[in-house]
Amino acid sequence: MGPYGPENGFCATILSQYDPQLLDRFKLEMSYGIERFFLLSYCLACCWPGLGAKSELRIVRQWPELEFVFPNEQAYREATDKRYYVPGNSVPIDVDVHHRQGDQKSRIFITIPRFDEGRPMTLGTVDDTGRVSAYPDYSWHENQGQNCNGFTSVFRIAIDECNRLWAMDTGKIGDKDYCPPKIVAFDLTTDNVVYTHIVNASSYIPTSLFITPVVDVRKRGTDCSDTYVYVADVSGFGILVVDVARNRSWRITHRLMFPYPSRGTFTIDGQSFDLMDGILGMALSPLRNNGIDRDLYFHALASTTENVVPTSLLRNESYLHDSNADPQSIKVFAEERPNQAAAEAMDRNGIMYFGLMEPPSIWCWNAATEFSPRNFHQLAVNRETLQFASGVKVVNNLKGEQELWVLTSSFQRVMTDTLSSNRINFRIHAEKIKALIENSPCKNSPKERHGSHRYHANLITPSRGYKSGTYKYGAVSYL
Ligand SMILES: *[C@@H]1O[C@H](CO)[C@@H](O)[C@H](O)[C@H]1NC(C)=O
Ligand SMILES: *[C@@H]1O[C@H](CO)[C@@H](O)[C@H](O)[C@H]1NC(C)=O
Ligand SMILES: *[C@@H]1O[C@H](CO)[C@@H](O)[C@H](O)[C@H]1NC(C)=O
Fold it and tell me: Where does the signal peptide begin and end (predicted)?
C-alpha cells in the first residue's frame, strides 16, 4: 500500500548482500551526521528511477504522499471517519534535524500545517521508510482544534543550540480560529515541554498567521535563559517578538513585511498561481559587533527583495514607537533576486542559503558581499526535484560540521489542485555545507574576508529623497 511497500523487500535483499559486520561498522561511522540517512537513500535509488537525478544535494526522503503511523487501529479509524485523515491531503512544509549522541538515531522532524482538513498530525518525525509519527505523541494532535492543550497547526519549527525544539502553533485550521497562537519548546533529550507562551490578544490581529520562528540564544556557558524568538506573521505582515525570559511578546509591523502585487504570481514547472503572502523567509546572522548583536534578514514570499534589521531593535519593545527612531533601522537591499524565494537560512559564517522558483534551484550568498545577483551562487538546480524550497535549515552535526537541509514540494500542484500520488511531490535533501560550497565563492566567509563587522547590511545607504526629521514606523492603515 505504501510508497515503499513492495520495494522494501528488494532493498532488504540488497542490504543483506553486505557483510553484516561491515554494515555495522559502516552504520557506526555514519552515525554522526547526514550519512546515516544515505544508506537508505542509496538503497532507494535502486527502487526509484529518477531518484539519482543529478543535483548537488542528496535526497534523503521523498514521497508521492505522506503516510502516517497511528498509535492504534481505533485512532486510525476515528481519524478517517472524522476526515481528520484524508489520504493525499497532507503537505509537508518544513524540516529540521536533531543528531543524537551514542547509538540513538538522529531524528528528522517535519511540519504539516493544517491549511485544510485531513492532516492527522501537524508535527512529526520521519522513520527510515518515510512514515510520519506524531511528535511528541499523538495526543497532541488528535484534538484538531477541539481543545487547545495540544497542537492546532504548525508551519515551521526551529531547533536551537540548547537542544530545544521550538514549535509555533498558529491556532488556526484553514481560515478558522480555534486557539490563541502559542509557542512551545521541547527538551529534545526528554521530549518534555520546557516552555510555553500563549500569545496575548494584544500581540496579533485577526489575519495574523505566525509561520516561521527563528531562535536567538545568547548563551552564557550552559545558561540558555537569554532567548528571544522572532516569528514571521505572513498575513498580518509583522514580526512577533517573544522574550522568553520575561514570558512576554509584542508584534512589530513595517511596510517591508508586506507582499508586492507585482510579485504575487508564481510559475513553477509551467503551472502558475497567485499568492499574496507577506514575510515568510527569515534568517539570523551570527553574533557580530563583538558578540553583542545579530541581524535578522527577512523577506516576503511575494517579493524579490531582501531586508535586514538589527535584532537589538526588535528586542526593544518601545524603540519603533519612538518618533526619533532612525528611519533606516529596517533596511532593504537595493538589488533584488531574479524571482521569488520561500525559506532561507544563514550559517555560522554568514553565508545565506535560499531557493529560487525559476529555475528551481538552491543558492548561496555571502553576506559580506553586496546583495546582488552577481553575488548569488548556484549550488544545485533541478527542475523536478528542487521546486519550492519551503524549508531551509543549517544543522550542526555531532562532529561540529554544518549541514544544509532543504524540504521541497511541488507546491504549484497543491495550489492548482493537481496533486497526484502517481509522482513524487515532496522531498527532503541534505548535504554537508563544506562539500556544497567547496567550489563556490561562498567558501570565503565574511569573517575571513573582512573581519566580523564588514557585513554588507552595514553599508546600505539611506534611500534617495529621505530628509532627516521625525518619522513614524509601522503605520498600516489610517484613512
Ligand atoms: C508563560 O505565560 C503563559 C501564558 O501565556 C503561561 O501559561 C506559562 O505558564 C508561562 N510560562 C512560564 C515559563 O512562566
Ligand atoms: C493582553 O491583551 C489584552 C486585550 O488586548 C490587553 O488588555 C492586556 O493589556 C494585554 N496584556 C498584556 C500583558 O500585554
Ligand atoms: C529602547 O528604545 C527607547 C526608545 O528609543 C530608548 O529610549 C531606550 O534607551 C532603548 N532601550 C535600550 C535598552 O536600548
Answer: none
Burial 330-339 (b: 16+ CB within 10 A, else e): bbbbeebbee
Answer whether 201 contacts ligand 2 (Cβ < 6 A): yes
Q: For residues 420 and 413, is the Cβ–Cβ distance under 8 A?
A: yes
How many other CB atoms are there within 10 angstroms of residue 348's CB atom?
15
Q: Please list, residue by residue across 192-205, b when 16 or more beta carbons sit within 10 angstroms of its beta carbon and e when fewer do.
A: eeebebbbeeebbe
- Say yes or no: CB of residue 196 within 6 Å of ligand 1: yes
- What are the domain boundaries of the chain? 55-459
Q: How many angstroms separate the alpha carbon of residue 198 from the centre of ligand 2?
A: 12
Ligand 2 atom 7, closest CA = 202
Kindly indicate the confidence band of residue 292, based on its pLDDT and cuts at 50, 70 and 90.
confident
pTM: 0.89
CA neighbor of 428 nearest in space, from 31, 117, 37, 67: 37
User: What residue's CA is closest to ligand 3, atom 11?
Assistant: 316
Place of cell 543549517: 394
How far does the centroid of ligand 1 lie from the alpha carbon of residue 197, in Å? 5
Q: Which protein residue has the closest C-alpha to ligand 1 atom 3?
A: 197
Q: Is the CB of 195 under 6 A from ligand 1?
A: yes
Residues 381-396 have pLDDT tens digits of 999 999 999 999 999 9
Q: Hey, whose CA ends up nearest to atom 2 of ligand 3?
A: 319
> What is the average per-residue pLDDT within 144-149?
93
Does residue 136 have a cis bond before it (omega within 30 degrees)?
yes
- Least confident span in 8-22, 61-75, 80-94, 346-360: 8-22
Contact 252, 206 (CB under 8 A): no
Instruction: Give, using CA atoms, the residue closest to atom 13 of ligand 1.
Output: 195
Query: Grid coordinates in use for 346?
Result: 544563514
What is each CA distance from 102 to 15, 159, 167, in whole angstroms? 23, 19, 26
Our measurement of the distance from residue 379's CA atom to the centroid of its chain's CA atoms, rounded to an integer in Å, reads 18
Q: Does domain 55-459 have CATH number 3.40.50.2300?
A: no
Q: Are 234 and 301 in contact (CB under 8 A)?
A: yes
- Which residue among 289, 318, 323 has the greatest number of ligand 3 atoms within 8 angstroms of its CB, and so is best to mutate? 318
Centre of ligand 3 from the C-alpha of residue 167, in Å: 30
For residue 479, what is its C-alpha cell? 484613512
The answer to whether the CB of 468 is under 6 A from ligand 2 is no
Give the number of the ligand closest to the Cα of residue 183: 1
